[in-house]
Please model this.
Amino acid sequence: MPGQGSADLGSGDWHWRRPVDESLRDAYLARLGWAAPPPPTVETLAALHRAQVERVPYEVVWIALGETRTIEPLDSMAHLASGRGGYCYHLNGALGCLLDWLGFDVRWRAGGVQGRAEPVPAGATGSHLALEVHGLPTAECPDGRWFVDTGLGDALYEPLPLVRGTFTQTPSTFALRPSEVVSGGWRFDHDPRGSFLGMDFTPFDATVAHLEERHRELSTGPESGFVRVVTLSIRTATDISTLRGLVLEHLDSGGKSKTEIGAKADYFALLADVFALPLPEVDEARRAALWDRLRADHDRFLAAPQPTDAGTPQAQPQ
Model:
């Protein structure tokens, strides 16, 4: 079965797979709360997914700090194990590698996010990396295929059975259905209050090479939302916290609230206490430069005509 590095790692659909590194595996598991490798069960899959979205932030602070990253899965695992976060290529790339090492049947899928201001779906452009896990049948998922995605920011708390339907994960409601723009693929429809409308993904495996160019564009291009807006998101079983620039949004069953962050100390305390991103390796000079950039961006935002929610500039989860 797939997992444990048993396949030919240089052939076919498995180009993203890597030989097992036990020390890296165990360091990553420790960040997620495991002292030893768990068995490849559907219960483990759900628990690992919950732990990742609770403990590892979706974040692009690294871009604002001027850091450069690859989407090599082992690099992503090392970043996460060290206490950092990332966006979809890092979060799902690392999780997919971990799941493979634990014995799960994991597939990489290339996707594309439809932003709130985009009138039509983007298609599977490679701007997103999603995961499928196969071979875990349950009553709600008879064919054993699961949609796994910790890289959508304010979206999934647990995996979804890859079947047509509507699903509630407090405080959000999602839907899955066959894609109208990707032949044989799937469409994930986000909650109407979410940061994007939906995401379409392919039915066939993606590789690192498929996604590298889009990663370069999204992490360095001046028009990229990830470059323009410093964004973080993290969630629990009951609520979602998202920080865009200096505006903190909190969504729970009671609705959405917003708070403006006015002081540098408060911003970095928020990163550490809410978003599990203490950044001990970032010195005072780099923190000061990041704060100055955030303050300038926020002042320009306040001085500009305020758009409607549908047109609000924001980093779309990828």
